[in-house]
Amino acid sequence: MDLTGKRVLVFGAGISGIGSAKLLEEAGALPVIFDGNTKLTPADVLAKLSAGTKAQAVIGELDGDLLDTIDLAVLSPGVPTDIPQVEMIRKAKIPVWGEVELAYQCGRGDVLAITGTNGKTTTTTLVGEIMKYHMEKGTDPRLSSVYVVGNIGIPYTGVALELTEHSAAVAEISSFQLETIQDFHPRVSAITNITPDHLNRHHTMEEYIRVKERICENQTAEDVCVLNYEDPILRSFGEELGRRKKETPGGRGCPKVCFFSSLRELEDGFFLRNGRILCREGGVETDLIGTQELRLPGLHNYENVMTAAAMTHAWGVSFREIVHVLRLFTAVEHRIEYVAEKNGIVYYNDSKGTNPDAAIKGIQAMDRPTVLIGGGYDKNSSYEEWIRAFDGKVRALVLVGQTKEKIADAARRSGFNNIVMADTFEEAFAQCVHLAQPGDAVLLSPACASWGMFPNYEVRGRVFKELVRNLPD
Q1: Cβ 45 vs Cβ 13: under 8 Å
Q2: Residues 402, 363 within the same domain
Q3: Same structural domain for residues 354 and 454?
Q4: Dmax over Cα atoms in the chain, in whole Å?
């Protein structure tokens, strides 16, 4: 769609919505920013845009007369697609995009897109580092710029107009963003894993799975989708893609599948064997790197490494370059991040463990008795599997936030009773310090989102790190 002169309703006046509005203005459109939050004023919203903006802002109710003037609607990821206002937009026959679709339509070049319940941020960061290293070698005329975008920090909309046909956008894509794609077409995609999450938004596991799998719906036989063979949902999906490819060669939704496995050797794909990561393709086996050479602990991180290696290799990066970056790469902030050792106790920040499956990975990475901080916002998750994963490692569970009673009940039903309740995050931290003994670990891996106590998991993690640093040595 040529956006020049189009009136585009931007639904949501947060960071994402403002980013979309700025991009739309740069692309020649006329944005109309709508937000139902009556605590805002139109002046508050427009102040976030550039001086001289021609955008409009509408606060409160969505008017049918306004919709009569709108050519396109762009939803921020935080806006559910099944609320009455969105239904109203659809009934008015107005196309509905999300910010990812908008950025894709405005940008050029290749997209390497990563989704999944867990592992997205580490994998996206690693793919970005490998692609940047490949670009800096200066030997590939296909690549002159690399941008790491999406949930990872830089909005995709913020760089879309800078993308050229020789650019690569490495994008972390959430299920919320995948709800509203239309033509979004990654050259290489990946789904790291799928476990229950965001069911308060998607309502059923089936819908959550369907939305995640949309990442490759516009890919063709020239493209690649990387999938986790040890995830039964994704194994089945990969087999379905293979059937589709045979029935509709070259059709949409029929990319080549590249599996990776942390538990078995594959005839084709990436896998672990005796502490080494290998790739087998076309009968040829390549030994890439030993896990002891990596600076990322835990089996889940080996899976992230295989995902990143598979994606960049599919794009065309040499194994030599991939391995060079793998040897140097360290963990991202807030994901099983070593903070400090104080008085013989090691502190780890895993604030990005915002659901039970992610928090299980945090527990599995611990190699010493652990005092664990859990709890936060309720995303309708169940916690029994997380509790069972304690497996004798967790000495005490300190709970805080909206879910603390729900988690405590699940823990008791699972036979874990060493539970301490706290009213504030600071109190929870103080309890951990009191309970931990020299040789222990204190792990923040809450299995819940931060909302209600913190704006996001990053702030929660940074508060935790500041509390650790303020402890006496």
Answers
A1: yes
A2: yes
A3: yes
A4: 67
What contacts 24+ positions apart, CB below 8 Å, involve 459-467?
460/351, 460/376, 460/425, 461/333, 461/334, 461/337, 461/349, 461/351, 461/352, 463/425, 464/339, 464/347, 464/349, 464/351, 464/373, 464/425, 464/429, 465/339, 465/349, 467/426, 467/429
Q: Which domain holds residue 300?
A: 101-328
For 243, the 3-state DSSP assignment is: helix
pTM above 0.85, yes or no: no
**Is position 2 within any domain?**
no
Measure CA 198 to chain center: 12
Residues 127 and 200 in one domain: yes
State residue 452's pLDDT score. Answer: 87
Please give the radius of gyration of the chain, using alpha carbons only, rounded to the nearest integer: 23
Same structural domain, 179 and 276: yes
Residues 56 and 39 in one domain: yes
Beta bridge partners of 273: 276
Give mean pLDDT, residues 350-363. 90
226 and 89 in one domain?
no
Q: In angstroms, rounded to a whole number, what is the distance separating the alpha carbons of residues 82 and 72?
A: 17
What is the rounded CA–CA span in Å between residue 433 and residue 339?
Answer: 14
Average the pLDDT over 406-432 and give the result.
96
Q: Are residues 209 and 282 in the same domain?
A: yes
Is residue 197 very low, low, confident or very high in pLDDT (cuts 50, 70, 90)? low
Share of the chain above pLDDT 90, in %: 75
Closest of 105, 103, 73 to residue 89, by C-alpha: 73
CATH number of the CATH domain containing 346: 3.90.190.20
In the numeric block, the tokens 């502190």 are attached to 347
Q: Which pLDDT score is estimated for 203?
A: 67
Last residue of a domain, one of 94, 125, 148: 94
One-letter identity of residue 415: G
Please say if the pLDDT value at position 166 is more than 70: yes
Residue 359's H or E segment, with its range, is helix 356-364
Q: What total number of domains does the chain contain?
A: 3
